[in-house]
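Re: the request from the purification team.
They wanted to know what the chain is likely to look like in 3D before they choose a buffer screen. I agreed to run a prediction and write the result into the notebook, where they can find it.
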Amino acid sequence: MRIHCKIVAIILCFGVLLLLYHFVRNAADEPPLKQVAKENYVQTSSGLGNIVSVELAQKPRPVAQVSQKQPRLNRKSSKLPNRRGSNHANPRRLGEPKPPRKPVSEEWMHLAVVACGDRVDETLTMLKSALLFSIKKIKFHIFAEDSLKPQFEKGLNKWPHPFTLKFQYSIYSITFSVGNAQEWKKLFKPCAAQRLFLPVILKEVDSLLYVDTDVLFLRPMDDIWSFLKEFNTTQLAAMAPEHEIPKIGWYSRFARHPFYGKTGVNSGVMLMNLTRIRNTLFKVGSNNIGRHLGHFDFVI
């Protein structure tokens, strides 16, 4: 066994020596790389005269040098200047202050209500529902008896701060500028005739929405407020019919004065353009009903 191992080791050493000798001989026969690089042209064996350029060592590409005195141009500054007659305005120079923006007037919605007697809680609930769903800010115009004013102020001031930023309110006394005040106050329901004098009292308000105290908003007030833009040049107010069935409606059964259409209109929700109403000649009177009634006496 020892002899066989020695023989195998000798054979392996002899094979390694042969391989080294073969590699050294091939390396000596190959020409150096520099000589191959100098031969720029080699003629092909086909005899067609085609010449192939062989370039083993590529020269490094020159790097563009930028002097410190000539800084690189920005993309914005490299643009061509505007031609004469161009519609584009010249860009604002650096350091110039920005032109002041025109203030955008914020649109307010106006909501009016008349409360007499024990209607304070009911009115506050209506106002809460209007403010809760609405998007724009609202100005409340509350007409109430003098004894109810402290209760309204106390209730409105208790509302959370985020909601107080969305509304403003004004409280007015019950006033009737024409005729006997007590007679107007007892006409139909208590204080119901106060809505007839809204165009005269709220002279600085262009349009508003009047609602009764028992109304509850279930959607944004902005939806009904948008109907003002659909008024034509002659329309003053918008109301809904009193009832869907004429025979059951209040006007067709009990009214002794003229009313609009077959069912009359419901004055519990009135969208009014006060500016047009003030510009229209109409008369509000309580005597001789049916002869001296104004436009809005029909909808009390």
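For the purification team: The longest helix spans residues 2-29.
Please add any questions underneath this entry.
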